[in-house]
Design a protein that fits this description.
The chain is α+β, with helices and mostly antiparallel strands. It folds into five domains: about 5-145, Beta Polymerase, domain 2 (2-Layer Sandwich), CATH 3.30.460; about 160-280, Nucleotidyltransferases  domain 2 (Four Helix Bundle (Hemerythrin (Met), subunit A)); about 310-380, no CATH class; about 400-550, Hypothetical protein af1432, CATH 1.10.3210; about 565-755, ACT domain (Alpha-Beta Plaits, 2-Layer Sandwich), CATH 3.30.70.260. The strands form three sheets. The protein has an eight-stranded antiparallel β-sheet, sandwiched between helices.
Length: about 750
């Protein structure tokens, strides 16, 4: 007999828990046969399953954790060997131990991992009474030492969350160790073996959510043939198909829903565990503190007193706003009571809008309260459209959160910026709704404008305010896109943005929205460089909106000092801080040589100003290092001198670097490279925008392709968004003016070939 893992793996009718239990049954039978052969006529010994095997949750790659328990038998070693070696011969990792009950209890009393493993002990073979003694005494020990073990367990929960992140929101979640993962449910089960802390209905909800995550983990192990709990992108479609789910998006949405159910109940339970540990059993709670008529703060939670009017549709928002203002949770019994409240009518009562603004305006505390309302089915009563974005994944590494959580995070960030705007109410509501269109078919901005027009009117905002909210959705990408992809020294750009925005009110709201949205998107979406560009754009547009001349707000390039460098007739290669200045004879491919050399040294181009006159070129380039905030220019400048003189094998060196160096960025779903021409973005130049996966030397290859057409790059803006680039170039024909339109199809072909070239 063997464990039959290959046979089980081939049986696609077995998924999730059914596969785990089938494998556990095989393991039980296999080990029982070995045990009986090894322990013939020996009494006082038993074989015990521990941990996941004890729970009968064996995936095909799980360890077998087994304890050979005995009552002091002197010659136990040969018995153990006769069991362990055949298991190892199966290629299975075995967690094994040989102990008496006393030895096992001594270990459990000192080591929390041993204690929790034994809490899940299950008899396999041999002396049932011996196993029962261990199970009973470990449970008693765990309860007796709860005041020591529970704080350790709580600390481990927090450490895991910090290390593994959120199952609900990560692009590639850790199904076991992450916040809202399998280990959280197991930890709750262990905690409840000491003190029952779950609410009625939690156990069933946790079990259903647990089985969703377990099924995905089991299928991941089956497909990869190895241990590992991170559901990587390349396995998500396969896991979805094996589980009968339509596609990876549906799979990830289901996992996010399950993880949120777990994390909500886990957070609540551990908060109450901590409270009981601090207060001690049998002591009286502190006196209630009144917060509002009928509402008190009791033991760190909001309670409602007396006869609660559940016919009041505003009550959920009023209660959540009150609790958020105190930064304390609403008691679970109160949330359950609020489930009886009806949906908000159309239009909303004024108080409902005021309470929503108050809730969103509380900042970070609002996030947990919005989640609490959502977990109790209350939030779609406030905003039915929320269902469409609920747990909706965004399958790219640029976004950290699901759509709904992104909106809540952005609104919390906006609340912290409320002092910068004259209408903080419009700021938090507009930011909270700016991506609501992502839950519906079509362009999310266009769809979002229609939805927010309806929502704003339903909330009772006056028509002018509704128009502002709609405009916030329409233009929520305007400032960051223009700031990072267009020439801010071009008066036409500033005038176009001013015409698009139309008022200083909308401009200040969009300015704060841009920062709040970017910070909620992910670490690659906001930084000092981007913030400075957006600030510059806003200052210049504000000047125009207030009646100033557009030509008064643009910088002069080149400066007199820079002109003098060009007129000197000498080659200049100078690096100071994060700025590289190059002056040399103008020729096709000059910028490409510069960018290639920078790529050799791990320097990313952020911005480039380029001008040519009298047969000479000036390039002023802002860079950042892939390896840290500071870097030395010496080696870069030496190689740059060689490249400009035609004495550096750039293409070969970049290929060698690409073969040995890979940018460490999270995996993502790449869209196909694309090249877009913006013919009306400038009256003097053709603007080309390139979207492509990042790789070593990609900017060098793009600019080399442009050089084939004898075109002048007069301005470049480069963004690297984790492992994708968005590069914008202002191009002029060799004799000046825009690129002839009949050249554009071939230019697109050349650039696409360059970004797809082997690297």
């Amino acid at each position: 007999m063997d464990l039959g893992r290959d046979e089980l793996a081939a049986d696609t009718s077995l998924v999730g828990r059914s596969l785990c239990e089938a494998y556990a049954d095989r393991a039980d039978a296999f080990l029982t046969e070995l045990f009986e052969a090894a322990s013939d006529r020996i009494g006082g010994i038993s074989l015990v399953a521990l941990g996941g095997y004890g729970r009968r949750e064996l995936s095909l790659q799980s360890d077998l954790d087994v304890l050979l328990l005995h009552d002091g038998y002197k010659d136990i070693g040969p018995v153990a060997d006769a069991i362990w070696y055949p298991v190892w011969d199966q290629g299975v990792k075995l967690g094994h131990a040989v102990r008496t009950v006393k030895e096992a209890l001594d270990l459990a009393g000192e080591d929390i991992d041993s204690a929790t493993a034994m809490l899940q002990a299950r008899h396999i073979a041999g002396d049932r009474a011996l196993t029962a003694t261990l199970i009973e005494e470990v449970a008693e020990l765990w309860r007796a030492k709860a005041s020591r073990f529970l704080p350790q367990l709580a600390d481990r929960v927090q450490e895991r969350h910090a290390r593994a992140g959120e199952v609900a929101f990560l692009l590639e979640p850790d199904l076991k160790e992450g916040r809202g993962g399998l280990r959280d449910v197991q930890s709750l089960r262990w905690a409840c073996r000491a003190r029952e802390m779950l609410w009625e209905g939690d156990d069933e909800a946790l079990q259903d959510a647990y089985d969703v995550l377990l099924a995905a983990r089991v299928e991941l192990h089956r497909r990869t043939g190895r241990m590992g709990d991170v559901l990587v992108l390349e396995e998500q479609d396969g896991v979805a198909g094996a589980l009968g789910v339509a596609d990876a998006d549906d799979l990830m949405r289901g996992l996010a829903e399950a993880a949120r159910i777990i994390s909500f109940r886990s957070d609540d339970t551990w908060r109450r565990v901590g409270m009981t540990l601090r207060r001690g059993i049998g002591r009286f709670a502190r006196r209630d503190r009144a917060l509002a008529p009928g509402a008190v703060l009791r033991d760190g939670e909001v309670h409602l007193l007396g006869e609660v009017d559940t016919s009041d549709p505003v009550l959920p928002l009023r209660t959540a706003a009150l609790a958020a203002g105190e930064d304390v949770p609403v008691h679970r019994a109160v949330l359950a009571l609020l489930e009886g409240c009806p949906p908000l009518p159309t239009p909303w009562p004024d108080e409902a809008r005021d309470q929503l603004v108050h809730l969103l305006g509380s900042g970070r505390p609002a996030i947990s309260h919005l989640e609490s309302l959502d977990q109790h089915g209350l939030f779609t009563k406030v905003l039915p459209e929320w269902e469409a974005v609920r747990s909706k994944p965004q399958r790219n590494a640029y976004h950290t959160f699901t759509v709904d959580r992104h909106l809540c995070e952005a609104a919390a960030n906006a609340a912290e910026l409320g002092g910068r705007v004259s209408r903080p109410d419009l700021l938090v509501v507009g930011t909270w709704l700016h991506d609501i269109g992502k839950g519906f078919p079509g362009d999310h901005t266009v769809v979002g404008m229609e939805i927010v027009a309806d929502i704003g009117a339903r909330m009772g905002f006056d028509p002018d305010d509704v128009a502002v909210l709609v405009a916030m959705v329409e233009h929520h990408l305007l400032l960051p896109d223009v700031a990072t992809r267009r020439d801010l020294d071009d008066p036409e750009v500033i005038q176009w943005v001013a015409d698009s925005v139309g008022s200083t009110l909308l401009l200040e709201l969009l300015h704060a929205l841009t920062e709040a949205d970017s910070q909620a998107t992910g670490p690659a979406a906001w930084g000092p460089w981007k913030q400075e560009l957006v600030d510059v754009l806003v200052r210049r547009v504000e000047h125009v909106l207030e009646g100033g001349a557009v030509h008064d707000v643009t910088d002069t390039f080149p400066s007199e000092e820079q002109r003098a460098l060009v007129m000197s007739g000498q080659r200049v290669v100078r690096g100071v801080g994060d700025t590289l200045t190059v002056v040399d004879a103008d020729r096709p491919g000059l910028f490409s040589r510069v960018t290639g050399t920078l790529a050799l040294h791990g320097l990313d181009v952020l911005d480039a100003n380029i001008v040519t006159f009298d047969g000479r070129a000036l390039e002023v380039i802002t860079v950042q290092s892939s390896f840290g905030p500071t870097f030395a220019w010496d080696k870069v400048l030496r190689d740059l001198e060689r490249a400009l003189a035609g004495r550096l094998a750039l293409r070969a060196r970049l290929a060698e670097r690409a073969a040995t160096y890979r940018r460490s960025a999270p995996a993502t779903v790449h869209s196909a490279p694309k090249v877009e021409f913006h013919l009306d973005a400038s009256s003097r130049a053709t603007v080309v925008e390139v979207h492509a996966p990042d790789s070593v030397g990609v900017l060098h290859r793009i600019t080399a392709a442009i050089a084939e057409f004898d075109l002048d790059i007069v301005r470049a803006r480069v963004q690297t968004l984790l492992d994708e680039v968005v590069d914008s170039f202002y191009l002029e024909a060799a004799g000046g003016g825009k690129v002839p339109e009949d050249v554009l199809p071939e230019l697109r072909r050349a650039i696409l070939h360059a970004v797809d070239a082997p690297r």
